[in-house]
Amino acid sequence: MLSPTVVRPTVVFRPTVVIGLGGTGYEVVLKLKKRFIDVYGSVPEVIRFISIDTTENIQEREKSPDGTKVFLEPNELYAISVANPLPLTRNDHIAEWWPRDIPANALINGAGQIRARGRLAFFARVGDIKSLISQAINAVREIRTNKQAFSDNYQVSSRDGVEVFIVGSLAGGTGSGTFLDTAFLTRQHLNNFSNITGVFVLPRVFANIPQTHLVKSNAYGALKEIEHFWGLSPSNSIEIDYGVTKIKADRPPFDAVFLIDGVNKNGTVVGRPDDLQNLVADGLYIQIGSQIGLDAANVADNIRAYLANGEKVRGRNINYCSFGFATLTLPVQQYERMKLEDAQSLLKNELMASTPAIDLESDIARFLEDCKLAEATTVLNALTESDRGGQIKPEFRIGEIRHDRTALATIKELYKRQLDQFEQRTAQELGLSFYRLEQAATAAIATFWERGLNRPNGLAYVLDFLSKLSQQLDELQQSVQRKSQEAQSSFNALKLEPQEEKIKEVAETWFPNKNTIQAACQRYKERADQKWKTYLHWKRCDKAAELYGVLRAKVEEIKEKCQRLHSNLDKVYRDLEQSYHEVNRQGSNDNPFIHTIGRINLQSKRPKVTGEDFIRWYREQSQTLTNWSEKKAEDVKNEILKFVDEAYYPLTSMTVEQVLADSNPEDAGQDLQQLGKLAVPLWQYEETEIPVQQQHVITEFYYYGVESSNTIFSDPPLSSRLPKGSNNPSFVPTGEPHKVMLFRVEIGVPLFAFNGMRDMESAYLDPNKVFKHLHRNWTNLANLIPPEDDGGALRWFALALAPDPYKLVVNQGRKYFVSTEQAKRLEGGVLPLGGDAYGGQSLRKLAFKAFKSNLPLVKEIADKVERITHEDQEKAKFTLQNYINHLNQVLNGGKVDAQIKEQVEMEIQEIEAYLEDLDVII
After folding, report:
1. For residue 475, is pLDDT > 50?
2. What gap in Å lies between CA 714 and CA 707, rounded to an integer?
3. How far apart are CA 123 and CA 10, in angstroms?
4. Average pLDDT rounded to a whole number, residues 683-708
5. Residue 641 to residues 324, 567, 572, 576, 638: CA-CA distances in angstroms?
6. How far apart are CA 205 and CA 263, in angstroms?
7. Mean of pLDDT values over 725-748
């Protein structure tokens, strides 16, 4: 059987820091960390995670859906809780932005959907947060500086810069309250080659959760701030005072912003926050691993390059992205179900099942016979067997004793001396024989255990055998114990005193007879020999009882090991059952973004998993099942699963790319097209909201997660069937052979075109929903939704403001005037378009409002502009281009009010569109 070897791709990572904000950010970071551990076994050191939240019980939210113990380390977690925040609001650097009438409650269990409270907690811990971010960035940058490579599986990019991802929700209080300051602080530690990417969840997915009435207004306020701060530049910067430090923000906080909604372009709804967080983690995993060569551009680079021209639509930025994520997979969950089924069957039917009808009595009798333990007599004789053959025969030797009056004293002295020697010799010889018999019997028991256990269903057989053997040994022990007691009684009954009296009697007569004394001594010897023989029998019975007892204890010890092993196998079986139910549960939760290839006939490729094969495999590992008695249940389970994994290797080693390559190109193409349909970006927008001439700004990038950079999708026939955007797709090595993942990025949609944006604006404008911004003055930021279509009035107004030869609308003093046919009927020959500003509106906007409301005037100006343009188109184009440059120069000066700037930017856009139309016509 071939052993599977896991080969991971060589991935080149950029130094990366992922910062999760609030509950959503925490969950995404945790899931993202798990993905790296699943693939690489650990998180590469060049990647660091930080989770910042206003709750102190974030550890309680740690979980992994499949039960894997993945958690954030203490140095990855930071709670910005504040027990008494009220005094903080009296500090000047906080009081300048803190919205009035907001209760400064304790910030321990979250920010309560109040964005400013999340920001207050951030300011309270800004020193620690700054250090935390700085340390993480320096740590990953230092690794790249040292050109540290960790293994053959991943390397560190030689490109400069650090990738930072800031992840959270714009709907709550913590993520939405801290994302801007986190970005501004982070930017201070990065060079111009670094990227900050924001990945933010929109409020739709939280709409049905209790206590979320502020999510839409919060999100709209946060998006207004993002939109506004795209305009930051060295000439248009802001200063933020954090108390412990001041920073100058002269660049936008983000290089790219991903907005993730709870519904995709096809209308597929992601109803649960957990599902959406999983998709975000998948998208981040692909982005972080999208560096496929030392000099390759990653996702953020591509987006940054695409947005470099700074194009706007109706005066609004298009710097927003979303992504879709889908997976084309083999039936790996079915593999897992099948493997767990076979592992359970192996345990239940091949390793733990009761044995068929076996004549245990005969087996035990044969075993005892082979070990010479079946008959007590055999054991007793074996104990007293002489080294020279035959049985040990005890004998009292009287030698050349003098048969006179000294005979009694002499024979008693001889007996005493020889008795000590006999007892010592008996103990020694019985001990040696006992050791020999014990070793032989113990080895036989161990051999039986080894052979009996290492066969299908051997455990049940061994347990039954040992139980009956123990009982048999107990009976044999009791038998020889009874013999010992009888021998002891016989020994004690044999007295030498009568023979001693007889010797004394015949030796003390007046005329002692030598023959009579000799005969009395001989009878003494015979009685002593009988006594010693009885003693030997008594002691060998004791030794036999001890032997049976030792062997029975050994059997009980092995039996206890078998019972412990059986208990472990029971636990393993229950664990496998639980794992099987878990896999089934996961399989029943249909993920709408996963497409499984269904053309594989699994049953025909299913291996046969048998007990004999397992035992043979286990022996090939130089191991015996008896080792299981000393192992933990978890280790036993892992060994069984390893065997099953290897048995399934021919099936599970098939990769998605192999299956697709072996498929009919039409079938493979259908699978790939389905992948493309599932990976549509997670947002919806109205394309009709974008002028037709600018709908080209929306584009897509396709990133495929494949096993390695050497992929079949690079070549025909599959390369032509692969869904792709206007650019060639990129391939990201992920090391996962059973999956092809598609990360599909869409970019270039202005916020006002978003589906649901008007609902968010309505919630934002609701006077009952206050505390929408991070700064009390930011309510004056430009709205996300530009003014309604004016029927082309803005274009003609913008062109009329251009200098000669146009100059149809002029600004004189504090009023705008226009000379027209209508004006000839008025005193002075001019038509006033706007007076002094009121209600916070600018003169320019008031003038345009008056202009577009006068339809005859709009038509007259349009005709004049067209006539002027076509009299000398080259001069007109030159004049208008210079006018655009002049306006941009004024705007870049940083001294133009936000509302006027918005109006002028839209005018510039209309003039540019007019020039483009001229080029098309020419």
Report:
1. yes
2. 13
3. 42
4. 87
5. 35, 18, 10, 10, 5
6. 8
7. 87
